[in-house]
Automatic annotation (TrEMBL):
InterPro entries: Homeodomain-like_sf (IPR009057), HTH_TetR (IPR001647), Tet_transcr_reg_TetR-rel_C_sf (IPR036271), TetR_C (IPR011075). It comes from Dyadobacter subterraneus. PROSITE patterns: HTH_TETR_2. Pfam families: TetR_C_13, TetR_N. Keywords: DNA-binding, Transcription, Transcription regulation. Coiled coil: none annotated. Residues 31-50 bind DNA. This is TetR/AcrR family transcriptional regulator. The keyword DNA-binding applies. Residues 8-68 form the HTH tetR-type domain. Signal peptide: none annotated.
């Protein structure tokens, strides 16, 4: 029998109320009591709208990813050049990582590791969407002669992602954001190197 939530409105409320909680504490670190406290609802009300805690966590991940992607899009839409758009991605990730629990893809991928394939796949999907966004900007920059014609868009996008995520990991793990600044500067330098 297919699970049907009691109320899409309540489901949306639970998702939004628990999104920051899951992004900061992770799946394993978030208890049912945490969910009840964040929502003000009982376990029965929560599980009347979600099959289980994993279902809530996946909805929260999707919400966090959409929120991040919307923030990036708003930033990119204000930029005139492709270089500014790529730098805008870095700026958004810097603010998100220092203020609100960090990148949901990194958090989810690290926690999933080899133990939760569903979470790993969800994080991987988000990363590939991000890569596609960066590749699109880089290809537009090549077409408009803003970036060097021989730029490998796929490779450059992956390097930018790796530097941003690696910088966040270093900053958070060491609690020394100077390390994150250093790696983010390397990401900015990668963008400068492809400019004409």
């Amino acid at each position: 029998m297919k699970f049907e939530p009691r109320s899409e409105t309540t489901r949306k409320f639970i998702t939004e109320a628990t999104a920051d909680l899951f992004n900061k504490k992770g799946y394993a670190g978030t208890s049912v009591a945490d969910l009840e406290k964040a929502t003000g609802l009982t376990k029965g009300s929560i599980y009347g709208n979600f099959e289980n805690k994993e279902d809530v966590a996946l909805a929260a991940f999707d919400y966090n990813l959409a929120r991040l992607r919307n923030l990036i899009q708003e930033t990119v839409d204000k930029c005139d050049t492709c270089k500014e758009k790529l730098l805008g991605h870095i700026a958004v990730y810097y603010v998100k990582s220092t203020n609100s629990g960090g990148c949901p893809m990194l958090n989810t991928a690290v926690e999933a590791d080899d133990t939760n394939e569903t979470f790993r796949l969800r994080a991987a999907s988000g990363l590939m969407l991000w890569k596609s966004d960066l590749v699109d900007i880089i290809q537009k920059g090549i077409a408009s002669h803003e970036f060097k014609a021989d730029t490998d868009a796929d490779k450059t996008a992956l390097v930018i992602i790796a530097l941003i995520e690696g910088g966040i990991l270093l900053g958070k793990a060491t609690k020394n954001y100077v390390h994150m600044d250093t790696v983010f500067d390397a990401a900015k330098n990668t963008i400068r190197q492809i400019c004409v």
